[in-house]
Specification:
The protein is 23% helix and 27% strand. It is α+β, with helices and mostly antiparallel strands. The protein has a single domain (12-94), classed as Nucleoside Triphosphate Pyrophosphohydrolase (Alpha-Beta Complex). A two-stranded antiparallel ribbon has the order 1-2. It is globular. The two termini are 19 Å apart.
């Protein structure tokens, strides 16, 4: 799932829009808060904030950060790989 951090003075929706575009080349709209969760990996503590949005241009999807990610891929719920966001995704797919 695309993600990132806030730049100084940036609001959440602008950060989401920027990160999605930087990582996937996709433009989004109709952004709505969905959930949040505490994420502790090794000695790092994050707050994951999750949104639901519409994608304007799926045909333009491309990996704009190949140095960080091998590829971009869409998954069905049944084929979703294990990840720390699993409980949030389960909540989304069962609502």
């Amino acid at each position: 799932m695309p993600g990132g951090t806030l730049e100084f003075g940036e609001d959440l929706e602008n950060a989401l829009d920027r990160e999605i575009l930087e990582e996937t080349n996709l433009e989004i709209s109709n952004i709505s808060f969905f959930a949040h969760q505490k994420i502790i990996l090794d000695d790092v503590h994050w707050l994951g904030i999750y949104f639901v949005c519409d994608v304007k241009n799926w045909e333009k999807m491309k990996n704009r950060e190949p140095q960080k990610h091998e590829k971009l891929q869409l998954f069905s719920w049944e084929n979703l790989p294990k990840m720390h966001d699993e409980k949030i995704l389960e909540k989304f797919f069962t609502k």
